[in-house]
Amino acid sequence: MSSISSEKIVALLRSEIANYEIEKRNHDIGTVSYVGDGIATIHGLDGVMYGEIVVFENGVKGMVQDIRKNEIGCILFDLEGSIKEGTKVTRTEKMASAPVGSGYIGRVINALGDPIDGGGSIDADDYYPIERPAPSIIDRQSVCQPLETGILSIDSMFPIGRGQRELIIGDRQTGKTSIATDTIINQKGKDVICIYVAIGQKASTVAKLVGSLRKYGAMDYTIVVSATASEPAPVQYIAPYAGTAIAEYFMYRGKDVLIVYDDLSKHAVAYREISLLLERSPGREAYPGDVFYLHSRLLERSAKLSDAKGGGSITALPIIETQSGDVSAYIPTNVISITDGQIYLESGLFFSGMRPAVNVGLSVSRVGGAAQTKAMKKASGSIRIDLAQYREMEIFTQFSSDLDDSTQKQLKYGKGLMELLKQPLNHPMSMPHQVITLVAATNKLFVNTPVNRIKKTQAAMLEYFGSHAADIERELEEKKVLTDELCEKIIAVAKDFFANPILSR
Ligand code: ATP
Ligand code: MG
After folding, report:
1. Exposed/middle/buried for 390, CB within 10 Å: 0-12, 13-18, 19+?
2. Computed from CA positions of residues 474, 317, 166, 124, in that sequence, does the dihedral angle turn out positive or negative?
3. What is the pLDDT of residues 25-81, one digit of tens each?
4. Cβ 72 vs Cβ 66: under 8 Å
């Protein structure tokens, strides 16, 4: 009796399993009904999820981006190759994910995680989904630690904190990328992992950038994710998300990460291309309606985690290119409203030789002040107002020839400040050097130096401090506070320097 029933059960199970597989297979395989421009329309993949990876017969992978009543729209991560009408497509039941791991540090990879620097293959420690919800409010803490860029005009007036998102915005060729790379170079020895995501750039530009990072030893802690202009739009579209997945891997392990998206204008253009091909209705400037969400869900993933979550952080420096300074265009306004401030670079300043071309009036950092070191905060106290006054006065006095003494002095002081804020490429300044420069400048010690000699004098002065008062730098480095005594000491040493006509000439 019992043997019969067990046989029955086995038979029943067998038939169930057999039927289940047949049914599953039907849902798992679809056929291409249309393909072109990096997009495929597929029939028959009934249970497919949004964002799922599907594989075509010739091995090309795609991601489901559009689910309609009887068909799905899918973006391709490679050239179409032999995909044609009727080609079979298989589900993977996996969401798009990026390989992550510390093996990626020092490497140049494409958006799919494959090395493109001629080095060997990389062993991934894990796979992280390229799209992940941002850390919740409970899991965060407010920005409290500085991320020093090494650029005087930024660190003094628009300080950036770890976990902040600061937009770099400006016309083409105004030094946007340079600010980002200088910041990466300045992270040497500061235990920050840097990720540079190149979107829609020329391969030669990226190669040059990697070369200069290598030259300054910055590739030791940097990962470059590159989706060049020649790659299909879907690859450019996922590149920043893949870069962020790698950043999250480190952040959730308690590390500080700096990620640069260069640039999000091209990212939006790649997304617009995909959306138009998927026949979504175009909105303003032909971008789809969800282009705000495209960038907000990306940048919201940058955070400073709470101590309970390990205290790691992702600091984001998205870059946006404007057309003839128009910050009120669609994509610039979107990203301005998502980020915690912007560094506005102006071509007028850039061409007049003011480099980095930071526009002091239009730039802002909304949260970084809380993270600035006390020393820096005190040293840079009045510089923004001084510069604002100078700019106003400069416009006002442009056409008048006889100026009174105090106005002339004010103008000279302002001009000197502007000159001091100039900084050559790849020359990050340490915090103590910045503080010493600011203290000397705001105490008007540079006013008698001819403008064309200011940069030389500044370098000589910092050298003088190094050789005659190294303890000042050490104290600033260690305590990060500018006490009144220390301030007096800096002024005294600087006065000694300026009293020596041979040194300060
Ligand atoms: P694109 O719009 O092409 O991406 P960009 O805004 O990123 O340009 P960069 O490539 O950073 O600008 O810089 C443009 C040029 O300006 C480069 O040749 C660079 O060497 C020069 N440059 C940038 N910053 C400085 C600086 N502080 N001092 C001197 N030259 C600079
Ligand atoms: Mg650039």
Report:
1. buried
2. negative
3. 566 899 999 998 889 999 998 889 999 999 999 999 999 999 998 899 999 998 888
4. yes
How many whole angstroms separate alpha carbon 99 and alpha carbon 245? 8
Distance (Å) from CA 129 to ligand 2 centroid: 28
Q: What is the DSSP string of 26-74?
A: HHHEEEEEEEETTEEEEES-TTPPTTEEEEETTS-EEEEEEE-SSEEEE
In which residue are the tokens 């798009």 written?
96
Ligand 1 pocket member 449 (CB < 6 A): no
List the beta bridge partners of residue 110. Answer: 226
The number of beta carbons lying within 10 Å of the beta carbon of residue 62 is 28
Ligand 2 centroid to residue 178 C-alpha, Å: 7
Q: Measure the CA–CA gap between 438 and 458, rounded to whole angstroms.
A: 10
Residues in the 5 Å CB sphere of ion ligand 2: 177
Instruction: Give the type of residue at 303.
Output: A
Angle at Cα 290 formed by Cα 286 and Cα 294, nearest 5°? 105
pTM above 0.90, yes or no: yes
Copy the structure tokens of residue 327: 């910050």
